[in-house]
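2024-03-11 09:14:02 INFO worker-7 job=invfold-0412 stage=load source=structure_tokens
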């Protein structure tokens, strides 16, 4: 992958981590939900965006490490 693609993947992963933190910590404003304090309708989205962000970060990291390894070998 090119450098710009790797940077875009990493930035997307960071945004997805922020979105997952927001979804995970979301609290409904209504007091009617007080019966179940742990009820969070967006918790599934939080785990999904966390997983997708992790996959994107791993792909960008692996691509960067392969590219940097090839660059070092070319310099020798």
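2024-03-11 09:14:09 INFO worker-7 stage=emit residues=76
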């Amino acid at each position: 992958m090119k450098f710009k693609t790797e940077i875009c993947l990493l930035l997307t992963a960071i945004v997805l981590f922020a979105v997952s933190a927001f979804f995970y910590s979301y609290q409904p404003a209504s007091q009617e939900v007080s019966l179940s304090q742990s009820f969070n309708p967006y918790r599934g989205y939080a785990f999904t965006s966390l997983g997708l962000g992790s996959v994107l970060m791993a792909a960008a990291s692996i691509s960067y490490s392969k590219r940097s390894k090839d660059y070092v070998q070319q310099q020798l």
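2024-03-11 09:14:09 INFO worker-7 stage=report msg="The chain has a mean pLDDT of 85."
2024-03-11 09:14:10 INFO worker-7 job finished
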